[in-house]
Structures are given as C-alpha cells and as structure tokens.
Amino acid sequence: STPAETLQKARVLIADPAHWTQRTAARDAATTPVPVASPYAKSFCTLGAVDRAAGFDSHDFYDATAFLYQVIGSAESIAQFNDSHTHEEVIALFDAAIEKAAAA
C-alpha cells in the first residue's frame, strides 16, 4: 500500500468515535486492552489503526506514520497526540497526513 492508502484505511477504522481509543493500542467490545492483531479488537488508537491498516507490515507502517509526524511537527509523539486530543482532532490529523501523503 502507499502511505496515503494505509492512512485512509486507518482513518476508516477509527472514523466512528466508538472505534477509537486512548492509552492503549486496541480494545475489545468490553473495552479491555487487546493486541492490535486480535480478532476481538474493536477500537484502536492512532498507531494501532495504522498498524492494523498496514497489515502489520513494518515498512508500510513507518512510511505512513512519517506523514503523521510531519503534521504533528513537534516533539510530541503520535501516542501522546492521540491520548491528549479529541477524536475530532485525531481525524483532522489523519486528513492532513493523507493530504500530505497523496501529494508526496
């Protein structure tokens, strides 16, 4: 996948606030933390969504997250951003990163 495709897939995974989480990569329907690869995972943080969307391919994951870092543009990590911002702000981060990746 291209970085833009991976980011778009990740955005779709967490587009519904019920499918987004904070302070852990993924949660099941009972909100218990689970591995991102778990078939029971129902909600994801930003990084968990990108990892899942990348099919756990580290090359695709790093290529896609590079664009998230370009948008954040600070010393703040993606995990910190996810955990300190609203769902709306995280979706806006994805939108900006997808735009940058598509233009690259």
Which helices and strands appear, and what pairs or packs with what?
Layout: H1 3-14, E1 26-27, E2 43-44, H2 46-53, H3 58-72, H4 78-84, H5 87-103
Antiparallel strand pairs: 1-2
Task: Describe this entry's structure for a reader.
- By secondary structure, the protein is mainly alpha-helical.
- The protein has helices at residues 3-14, 46-53, 58-72, 78-84, 87-103, and strands at 26-27, 43-44.
- A two-stranded antiparallel sheet has the order 1-2.
- α1 (3-14) runs antiparallel to α5 (87-103) and α2 (46-53) packs antiparallel against α3 (58-72).
- The chain is globular.
- 39% of the residues are buried.
- The model has no long low-confidence stretch (mean pLDDT 97).
Primary descriptors:
globular, 104 residues, 5 helices, two-stranded antiparallel sheet, 57% helix, mainly alpha
Structural Rg: 12 Å
β-strand number: 2
- Beta-strand percentage? under 5%
Unreliable sequence segments: none
Instruction: List SSEs in N-to-C order.
Output: HEEHHHH
| Biggest sheet, spatial arrangement of strands | 1-2
Treating each run of at least 4 consecutive H or I residues as one helix, how many helices?
5
How far do the termini sit from each other? Answer: 14 Å
| Helix percentage | 55-70%
Shape: globular
The main sheet comes to: 2 strands, antiparallel
Q: What structural class do you assign from the helix and strand content?
A: mainly alpha
Tell me, rounded to a whole number, the average pLDDT: 97
